[in-house]
Structures
1.
Amino acid sequence: MIAIYPGSFDPITNGHLDIIKRASKVVDNLVVAVLCNGSKRPLFSTEERVEMIKAACHPFENVDVQAFSGLLVDFAKQTSAKVIIRGLRATADFENEFKMAITNKALSDNIETLFLPTSLQYSYISSSMVKEVASLGGDVSFMVPNVVEKKILQKIASI
Ligand code: ADP
């Protein structure tokens, strides 16, 4: 079974990594799909986001990382994925995730969305929280992989 885990990953956090690790144990192949054309203006370029995820996912043999633009269901078809994985942190995530899942199902009946609940210790972590804390000079080492901590400090120093 091939599954895709789509998102902005701006940048990847330990919460994302936990979902990747757990999902990769229940599917044959997991494609982490990095959205290029989201509505939010990212801090990191698509290439930087892909590179950081590849470095963080190095230990997982059945995980691949690709950038995509356009409709998620079209990308799922291209990669022969039958399943979309999404993480759920809190009830706040639910409404939007539910709408997206129903929309994707309406666009393509062959693809199912599966939700994984966050692990408790990562339930408060988001990419935007990481960026905010880092931009104010706070420690983000416990929220992101090492590679991201280094990159985010470089990025903030350069802007
Ligand atoms: P998007 O812009 O598509 O929401 P994100 O990179 O913010 O992209 O999130 C990608 C997916 O990862 C979403 O399903 C989101 O709910 C999930 N996610 C984000 N942070 C966490 C976390 N700390 N624990 C579990 N899932 C998470």
Note: The chain has six helices and five strands.
2.
Amino acid sequence: MGIVDGKRALVVGVANDRSLAWSIVQELHKQGAQIALTYQGEALKKRVEPLAESVGASIIGELDVNIDEQIESTMVKLKSMWGGLDMLVHAVAFAEREDLRDRFLNVSRKNFLRSMEISAYSLVALARAAEQLMEANGGAILTLTYIGAVRAIPNYNVMGVAKATLEACVRYLALDLGPKNIRVNAISAGPARTLSSSAIRDFHSMAHEVEQRAPLRRAMRNEEVGGMAAALLSDLSSGVTGQTVYVDVGYSIVGM
Ligand code: NAP
């Protein structure tokens, strides 16, 4: 029997088999969860379909986290399919490619707000919608962040500011939802080669730095995010909320 046996999970943010969300889906599946996935746009649907099939997950439709009606219709579908929800995974972020290089100082007002909206506000919007489906039995919400939220990492720029906001949102959501036994946590993952990270200039150096300096002297493996995600979403972590847990082969503790 798995640690999330029979629990119902919505995972938002699978783009392909390199996505961190995909490593979370695989572990949740291994641990006995039922899984629902969304996709953004027809091109992604084609990529997500075979992945969903391989773990017996349901694809419940398109979800652009900026569109409130799509968030609402996702919850309506989950309610009619399952009657409720136990776990929500938010693995979504966006910044314009031009803002993931050179000076943070140059970010435009429009791009700054768009990054914030997609990368941080979307967690609030999804958590509010999921609350109705979780309040009967409690639940667990998880998002993904990066050390660029708390340190200035060259080229991460506006995304670091959005992740700082996201981590603060985790704490405030945990405070609001705690009385309903809904927990909210974040995993701060080490660098992983994905569609999103390929937009960051010199991402290779960030990853190389971790491999050289982290206590474990290697890159983080995506499945290590999946493992911690399953633990944080499961009842094994029933006393943990509002936290950012580092799955970064120890990089964040090193001073020099
Ligand atoms: P990924 O595979 O590219 O996943 C990012 C996902 O966000 C994609 O599915 C993307 O869909 C989705 N997304 C963007 N805008 C959206 C919107 N408006 N509505 C719905 N979905 C939207 O990359 P990833 O690296 O696994 O990223 C997942 C999370 O992990 C992100 O929060 C990222 O910041 C975080 N993280 C990544 C790393 C890393 O090194 N890779 C490290 C720490 C934390 P589209 O492709 O259609 O835009």
Note: The longest strand covers residues 182-189.
